[in-house]
Amino acid sequence: MAFPGSDRKLVLLTGAASGIGRATCLRLVAEGCDLFIIDRDGPGLEETKKRAEALGATVKTHQIDLSEPAAVLEEMQPIIDQFEIDYLVNDAGLGFARTTEQTTLAEWDLTFNVNITATFLFCKMVLPQMLARGAGAIVNVASAGAIVGLKNRVAYCASKAAVVGLTRCIAADHATQGIRINAIAPGTVGSEWIEKILSDVPDPVATRKMMEARQLDGKMGTPEEIAEGINFLLSPAARFVNGSVFVMDGGLTAV
After folding, report:
1. What is this structure's pTM?
2. What's the domain range around 195?
3. In terms of Cα–Cα distance, which of 34, 161, 18, 159 is closest to 98?
4. Could you tell me if 128 and 116 lie in one domain?
5. Which residues are catalytic?
6. What is the mean pLDDT of residues 86-107?
């Protein structure tokens, strides 16, 4: 369908080099999808590509830093226009362990550029072709931190709350035109990102225990579990799900 000679659905996915992004790629390949995957981590992208191709997918990669919005739009729009994107997953994100007074303007801008502005831009770039076909599904990866405040994550939580608002507005604008868009809000998920956070704190053992205790059962989620949620939201089984926030947080936001 989207790649020459292929009748498989094509997924455009950002943040594909590790964690939830990689797990989602492999889950969607198992559903018969091909991949157009994006990340700033070139070696990580190639590893995801190798694993997906071993499962039978056709994979195109593109390495880009999403922190410069104008450059992202200029570079990506002509490439995206070459393909028919069936599904979009905006997973790329970052955050800093900072309170409001500790957060610099540069950190705030970087967080918002990657977490929400890039999400907006990829929706903006892909929506015209989806609307022209009258079909398409999008999942934006938000966070449990978009629903409740998390300590020392002010820019991250604010940007993920913006992801939720963007998602709902796009759904309201285009629900009658064959487009579904939802946000998924993971709790604490064990991944390379968590390991990076732990490597930067004075007491990683205590911090890990705190992160685990935020979930009601005292366990972090896995990237594969979140990938199952994303797969559902993209699938025809979720036809009646639109403009929603699908919380997968082990009960973090329940109490």
Report:
1. 0.94
2. 191-220
3. 159
4. yes
5. 156
6. 96
